């Protein structure tokens, strides 16, 4: 019997060792999966940051510009209306040709003028409008460089490739090196990327218009979706009778939360644009469409937060004579508010990153002016990224990556805020 018991103990020990080995393998597989996921995430973020951070800087060229009066204000009136109509393109070309007097051929001069941005003449006009006393004087000014010069200066365009494989020829590269050697080339922080709007020229494009469009769109979404979602959830959780109709409504709300976002875009196109005839490519239509998409998420999160409040709170409130409405509004809802806010922020973060619904309602238009009201033509940050990704100009590649960095930063801030609110105001029952 002793020998038999010893055999059973040895068998049990083998089974234990086998189980421990399985647990170690499972733990190792879990650690490997987490490490692989983190590695892929870091690779993706590193790639985006490496490609996008140069867009936060821009290159400028310094020139000695003579603001010839006969080109800017031939009548010597000094009036702003006349100064605004000056021939600043000719002023700019004269400054370039004086800096490079050896460039005399017409084709070479055209290549020379491509070193500065097409907006340089407008920058000269703004300088004169700000400083009318500069007329008929020579000033050293800094002007925005063209996109190709900007990429070459920041290392995004390789120098050690054949001339036929880059957009700047050897002579243009020599002109740029001459500016650099003379201290007439600098790289500064690109504030215009955050304040400017979309442009056909990569060096001028910014996300200011897209940020304003996203702001108005999300504001409309929040103002409409939050009260409607919370009210619907309170009714379904606290007041609605349990019958087939409410069961049908609950099932459909859960199903709507899983519907692809492009379906909501089709719904917004059919209802808000075709039926109500609201203007396309506006923040009001975008906000209404994203409101439809966000409502199920807010309702589900609010119901979960309300259900987490213990029944004893309701019973105690009823015991002191509170009505059902007072129980819900004065006791249950305030205690569930942290969970409601967390769900709302997560829903808004999802709406911020959506592209497909906005494409369906026409917010893919080329918008130059920054929207100042919900009915102004607008685009959103994800749509702006989509537009730049589809552009053949290489200069938009770093703009797209920089816009992705900004979008990811907003999403991380919103999710971090949701986590903070949950941990700060969460109550343990």
Task: Write a structural description.
The protein is mainly alpha-helical and 429 residues long. It has two domains: 56-190, no CATH class; 208-425, MetI-like fold. 66% of the residues lie in helices and 5% in strands. It has helices spanning 2-52, 69-72, 80-84, 88-99, 106-113, 120-130, 147-153, 170-181, 192-195, 208-239, 244-257, 261-275, 283-307, 311-319, 324-352, 356-360, 381-389, 395-425, and strands spanning 57-66, 138-144, 185-189. The two termini are 54 Å apart. The model has no long low-confidence stretch (mean pLDDT 90).
Q: SSE layout and pairings?
A:
Elements (H helix, E strand, L loop, with lengths): L1 H51 L4 E10 L2 H4 L7 H5 L3 H12 L6 H8 L6 H11 L7 E7 L2 H7 L16 H12 L3 E5 L2 H4 L12 H32 L4 H14 L3 H15 L7 H25 L3 H9 L4 H29 L3 H5 L20 H9 L5 H31 L4
Helix pairs in contact: 1-18, 4-6, 10-13, 10-15, 10-17, 11-13, 12-13, 13-15, 14-15, 15-18, 17-18
């Amino acid at each position: 019997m002793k020998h038999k018991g010893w055999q059973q103990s040895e068998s049990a020990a083998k089974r234990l060792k086998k189980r421990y080995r399985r647990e170690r393998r499972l733990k190792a597989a879990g650690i490997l999966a987490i490490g692989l996921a983190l590695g892929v995430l870091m690779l993706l973020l590193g790639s985006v940051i490496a490609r996008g951070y140069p867009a936060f800087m821009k290159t400028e060229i310094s020139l000695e510009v003579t603001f010839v009066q006969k080109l800017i204000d031939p009548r010597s009136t000094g009036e702003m209306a006349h100064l605004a109509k000056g021939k600043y393109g000719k002023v700019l070309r004269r400054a370039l040709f004086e800096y490079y007097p050896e460039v005399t051929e017409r084709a070479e001069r055209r290549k020379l003028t491509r070193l500065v941005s097409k907006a340089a003449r407008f920058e000269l006009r703004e300088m004169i409008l700000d400083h009318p006393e500069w007329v008929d004087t020579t000033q050293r000014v800094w002007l925005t460089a063209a996109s190709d010069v900007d990429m070459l200066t920041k290392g995004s365009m390789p120098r050690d490739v054949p001339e036929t494989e880059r957009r700047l020829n050897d002579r243009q590269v020599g002109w740029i090196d001459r500016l650099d050697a003379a201290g007439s080339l600098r790289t500064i922080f690109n504030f215009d990327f955050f304040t400017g709007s979309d442009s056909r020229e990569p060096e001028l494009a910014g996300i200011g218009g897209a940020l304003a469009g996203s702001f108005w769109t999300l504001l409309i979404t929040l103002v409409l979706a939050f009260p409607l979602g919370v009210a619907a959830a309170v009714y379904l959780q606290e007041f609605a009778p349990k019958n087939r109709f409410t069961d049908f409504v609950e099932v459909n709300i859960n199903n709507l939360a899983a519907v692809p976002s492009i379906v909501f875009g089709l719904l917004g196109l059919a209802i808000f644009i075709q039926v109500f005839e609201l203007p396309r490519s506006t923040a009001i239509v975008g906000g209404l469409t994203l409101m439809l998409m966000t409502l199920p998420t807010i309702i589900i999160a609010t119901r979960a937060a309300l259900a987490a409040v213990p029944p004893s709170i309701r019973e105690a409130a009823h015991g002191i004579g509170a009505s059902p409405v007072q129980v819900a509004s004065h006791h249950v809802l305030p205690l569930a508010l942290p969970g409601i806010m967390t769900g709302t922020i997560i829903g808004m973060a999802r709406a911020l990153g959506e592209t497909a619904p906005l494409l369906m309602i026409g917010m893919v238009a080329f918008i130059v002016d920054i929207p100042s009201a919900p009915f102004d033509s607008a685009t959103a940050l994800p749509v702006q990224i989509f537009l730049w990704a589809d552009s053949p100009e290489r200069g938009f590649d770093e703009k797209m990556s920089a816009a992705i960095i900004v979008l990811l930063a907003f999403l991380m801030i919103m999710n971090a805020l949701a986590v903070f609110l949950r941990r700060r105001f969460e109550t343990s029952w």
